[in-house]
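notes to self, project folder thing:

trying the whole complex as one job this time. last attempt i did each chain seperately and stitching them together was a nightmare. two parts in total, labels are on each line so i dont mix them up again. if this works i'll redo the older ones the same way
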Amino acid sequence: MHRVLAVAANTVKQILRMKIAVVFVLLLLVLLPAMAYSATGDGTVKGRLQTFISYGMSLVGLLLALLTLFGVTYSVTSDLVHRQVDMILTKPIRRHEFLLGKFLGVLFVDAALLVGLSAIVFGVTVYGPRFMGATERDRVQLANEFFTARKGLRPKEVDVSQEAEQEYQKLVKNRELDQYFEGVPKRIVMARLIQQKRLEKRAAAAGRDLVWEFDGVHLADPNGSLFVRFKVDVSVNPQDLQVYSKWMIGDLRPLRSGGQPQTPIYRAERKDQIRTAREFEVSGQVVARDGYLAVGFFNDPANNTVVIFPIEDGFEVLYKAGAFEANFLRAVALIFVKLVFMAALGIFAGSFLSFPVAVLLCLVVFLTGTVSGFVLESFGYLGSQLSVVYEYSLKLLVQVLPQFDQISPTGFLVAGRLIPWSMVAWTGVAIVGLKAILLLGVGLWVFRSREIARASV
Amino acid sequence: MDYAVETISLTKTFSDLWGRARVLAVDDLNLQIRTNEVFGLLGPNGSGKTTTLKMLLGLLYPTQGRAMIFGGDGADPKINTRIGYLPEESYLYRYLTCRETLEFYGRLFGLARRVRKERIEALLDMVGLKAVAHRPVGTFSKGMARRIGLAQALINDPDLLILDEPTTGLDPIGTRQIKDLIVTLSQRGKTILLCSHLLADVEDVCDRIAILYGGKVRAEGKVEDLLRQADRRQITTGPLSDGVVSRIRQMVSSEGADCEVSAPLEKLETFFIRIVSEAQAQSQPTSGAVSTTRIGDFLAQGWDRGDVLDSLVHSEAAEPTPGVEPQVSPASRPIETPAPIRRDVLDHLVNPGQEGDEPPTQGMDEKVA
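result (full assembly):
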């Protein structure tokens, strides 16, 4: 182990003294305070902080990932090109120990810089409101919606494929298919019917209600608050573009049987702008002891329109399930997981490729992983024409590579949402435990098998 | 018989991208180097010397045959603990200081902190780089880099020292110091494999040599055996009068042999070192040569007093291989004494002098060949 640590310590010196890290660190040290000053968001204090933490953590993650892949590939390939390996590998060190030392050295630099730079982002975020003229109302809003780690409850998706199929058969039987879907393939007709049925489950006609039920709701503080976040769409726009509604929140089970509720029931009449995200606070005491919670919505007949809660962001109940500080820590851990993968990828590429080619390979993997959702979606359309080729080549490759955009922590921090430890652990296992170790293993095997010296005759 | 270094039918072919053999770098090489032997591997550029060393050290894989060090694989860490290697160029980390460089290699050998520190200080002292120990090696001249390269090769007190072109880039004093060091290490039981195309270096220090050409051994044996001219005799005397010289000429002529009388020339290397030493004694300023004579001074004064080198080299010499006649290094002769000059070689190298230009013989050492 002392040999691995010796190489690791040397790698740290190499990255620092060859000024590989300097450019990245200087860039961050200039950009972070500049962003803190210039971030405006939606004009509110919360908006400014959201903008800062979003760009700040994204920038830290991006630049450290680039530093990692440049640093580790340079460190390995430079030693091969400039022949330092000839001196090192004739000492009592095994080749895999040499590469592991490089890997650990880069990770040590990453960890130190990540801690330092995250501390800057954290400090600016936490102490920023003092210098932004935050009012008491801002502070309350920040405490409830930003400096928190909230869990979100969304209505479960109901399987409507059976209903859609029945609707399709009905259209066929009534010879109405051509009337509505002339020349459209069944696959697309079914997709539209399924979407229609799903929306029906989230829609209430005038004078009708909707009830969402949740289990397993456990608040970090039972006396804390719930936040109902919703956005409504309508079939016909009301004149004032407002929707009138009544809400009941609590343990509604006894009401159905005419019994006495075991929890306080929150009741409210509201008037909300359509197609605009709204949020209101409810006491956490409305949650039953067994973790049951029901939210009832009544569409006032005066609206005279169908109210729909869009699938993506129509309805959600948020509650505080952790502290901002711990959530921030988990966000940093997610970034570190990404850096570990990049370091392993750099070792793999550097074990058999020259510096420019290794960097190019790492960049392609990194950028593909960063926009994997977009890539899969884009090629998914193409894939319908080239299904076999696509399924077993590009799609497989993108899925095998880590999908960094799926584990981006900034979205969670901006919305004050909880990053569960389970997500950190699963990400660690899936990306580090499997993919990074596999890459590292292949890199070590290649390096162990290859001739280190070059022909010189 | 156990050898420090042994190759059996060692062959290396470099292939192109398509696997077609392009260069036969080493061809069926069989070498045996005994422990406590100074062995010189000679050959012109591209003769396969360095390729052989790299196969011995596991940096290249043989196409055929075997390369063994101390009976094992040169890439085995257990074997590596007993090897010191100085490549043809000192491949150092430019950003590390002199002391950090040695510290790094010391850590690779797993030397305890205290031992490491002691050895580093002693080595810095020995190679004369103590005054610049804090400087990054990237700022060093080639000669200084060579010195630090040599120091790292000795950090583990190796039983086998493999030196590839060790005097490349060194000034004459540095070259001399390396040779002195080789002799001293040999006296202390170490085995040395010296790879060079500088014949004078090899001749001065090696017990046995092998000459490679085209990857094959063309000649191998003891230096004295290979160079001895059995049909010639050389007598070196003190000052002689012209009369005595004349009588000697007559005696030699009566035997029917050629006779050449001249005053021996001092070796240029010895002359150069003397001049520089005198300049140093007068404390004349120089930009970076403060370190250049330290090995020589140290070695000249050191091995009787047993100071730094004793701390660097274990006193217990490597066990000689049973049944093997101990090798006597020609270098164990005091190098400081100018060696006789082979006039036939010298005549071959320089234009013959005009008649009547014969140097005066009175009051000078005289050489009769």
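what i see at first glance: The first helix of chain A runs from residue 2 to 17.
need to look closer tmrw
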